[in-house]
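User: Pseudaminic acid cytidylyltransferase. Structure?
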Amino acid sequence: MKIAIIPARGGSKRIPGKNIKLFHGKPMIAYSIEAAQKSGCFDNIIVSTDDQEIADIARQYGAEVPFIRPAKIADDHATTMDVMQHAIGWCESQSMTVDLLCCIYATAPFISSDDLAKGLALISTGDIDYAFSATTFAFPIQRAISLNDNGSVQMLQPEHVNTRSQDLPEAFHDAGQFYWGKVSAFKAGKPFFSLCSKAILIPRKRVQDVDTLEDWEFAEALYAVMKV
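Assistant: Predicted structure:
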């Protein structure tokens, strides 16, 4: 079996109700559920939540909510791995034979069903633990700066102060959308970012982290432009 797990706890502080807040007319979580459905990759699409309102809305959009997530893994310190391992434990308690899991974040309005399918193909054929979406940094990370307490700046990698941008290797970052993985890798708590993982590269225009109100506003503006 191939199962999607969508972590969606309640109690978001920076953006209250973030997972079900309306984004261009639909609850944010609906975009992840619908992409998973459209991909045709999954036998089950399960939302892991501690919040009844999130559970009700998830079911309205066709996801399953067969359990309520325990409070001990629904606070600010709970990790994605905690949630995935709990979901695996529940599946095993139901005698479900799961081969591959995909963690899909609930706040990923630019997620693509095609990218999910590419991830499945990659994890199915490669000798890897995980496959996840990633994109390029817009600016060379080797020329990043930091600010000290009095506002002065310093380079994080001063050895590159005179290196031309075009001579620096390109860097990539997690797109924060989905992580396909083998059950054995999730159960062992293996890290997502290692030589045993591969990336599905997507354009920067389809990547936006949504953690703050500024992020949300930018994502809404970007989505509006993308849909024109």
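The domain at 2-135+172-226 is CATH 3.90.550.10 (Spore Coat Polysaccharide Biosynthesis Protein SpsA; Chain A). The two ends are 37 Å apart (CA to CA).
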